[in-house]
Structure formats: structure tokens, C-alpha cells
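Preliminary data (for renewal application), coenzyme A complex.
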Amino acid sequence: MMLNMKLKVIIFLSKIIFLEKIILFILRRNQIYSKTLRAYFKKVRNIEVGTFSYGCFTKDIPNGTIIGNYCSFADGIKIFNGNHGIDWATTHPFLYNTTLGLVEKETINRYKLVVGHDVWIGGNVIILPSVTKIGNGAIIGAGSVVTKNVEPYSIVAGNPATHKRFRFEREYIDILEEKKVYNLTKAEFIKNMDKMYDINLFHKINN
Ligand SMILES: CC(C)(COP(=O)(O)OP(=O)(O)OC[C@H]1O[C@@H](n2cnc3c(N)ncnc32)[C@H](O)[C@@H]1OP(=O)(O)O)[C@@H](O)C(=O)NCCC(=O)NCCS
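Predicted structure:
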């Protein structure tokens, strides 16, 4: 009897979860533009996703993450926001996880990652809890394990991810930061597209 009841509850819940999956699947098809998907992630997961960013509406982005505009997240990205108790007698979650019933308040630190604007994160990247800031315009190579904050407009890659180079010389980074391409509306973006392919025309971008 008990088992029957339990099974019914599980099936009921899984149906709701299944429904959620369907709804998210539908919303994700328009993820570059969907305001509803952004509002859902903010309300239910406390994750902020900026305009035109995509690939970040997954279960592998922890609550509290902030993601800027125009970001591209490839498949398989995992962001971790906490470590088990490294210095305790056991690393088991019994010592910190409230849902397991032995502690009333979570006893580990949770970190919040802020991803800037126009950040491109390659496939299967892992971002560890020690990372709290990825700067505007940064690129993270595929398969990297990121252990430190990433400087704006830098390319990092590898395990552990190391600085490979900056995307542009300082003067062009300054121009891009002044122009703030990542704040352009789609109409403004379209108007300026021809100036975006050539570094010598960046200074002519306007909104
Ligand atoms: C990082 C990346 C953008 C290339 O940047 P780049 O500046 O053109 O890099 P290069 O190919 O000139 O390589 C520069 C150095 O970084 C290394 N490198 C490049 N990508 C790397 C990666 N993902 N992991 C480890 N090392 C990498 C190269 O071996 C090279 O090392 P070396 O200087 O010792 O020879 C690219 O390699 C990458 O990872 N792209 C992501 C693709 C992806 O995930 N797409 C998903 C769909 S959106």
C-alpha cells in the first residue's frame, strides 16, 4: 500500500518534471530572444541571463550565476559553485547538505560566478568554484578546466586553463569597451555589422 502510494507520488512528480522539460525545450528553441525563458531562470533558479546570450539555459549552471549580454555557451559546460569539506574528517555531504537531515544550515561556502558580456565558452569546459569573474570579451577554449578568474578579452585554454593571448591590442579593446557592442539592440547591431569584421573600423561603430 505504502509502495503504491509512493509510486503514485513519484509518477505524478515525474510528470510535472517531464512537463517542465517540455516547456523548457520549447522555450529554448527561441533562447536568443526569449524574455519568458530569462524570467523563468531568474525566478526559479536565480540565474540572470542577458540579452541574446544562449546555451546557458541548462541544469549545469548553478543558482546565483550572472551572465551578460551576447554570450555564447557551447554544449557540455559545467560550472561548479562549491567544494565538499576538504579539511573535515570526511568529504561526505552528510556534513553540509541540509536535505540529508544531519545539519540545519549548509556549512560549506557557495561562490557566485559573474560572466561578463560577449564571452564565448567552448565545448565541455569546466569552471571551478574558485572562479568568480570572467571578463567581457573573453574566450575559453574547448575542454578547458578554468581555475582562476579570466581577464577581459583574453583567450585561455587547457587544464588548468592558462592565458594564451589577448584577442586585440589594448587600444582596440578600449574602443570596444567604449562602443559597448554588447549593449546594442538588434537594429543597432544590423546597422553596424559592416564595421565589425575589420579591426580598423571598430571606432566607427555607433548606436
Ligand atoms: C581557443 C580557440 C578559440 C583557438 O584560439 P586561437 O588563439 O586561435 O588558438 P591557436 O589555435 O592559435 O592556439 C594557441 C595555443 O593554444 C592552444 N590551444 C588552443 N585551443 C586549446 C584548447 N581548447 N585546449 C588547450 N589548448 C588549446 C594551442 O595548442 C596553442 O598552443 P601553443 O601556443 O603551445 O602551440 C580554439 O582552440 C577553441 O578551443 N575553440 C572552441 C571551439 C568550440 O568549443 N566550439 C563549440 C561550438 S561554439
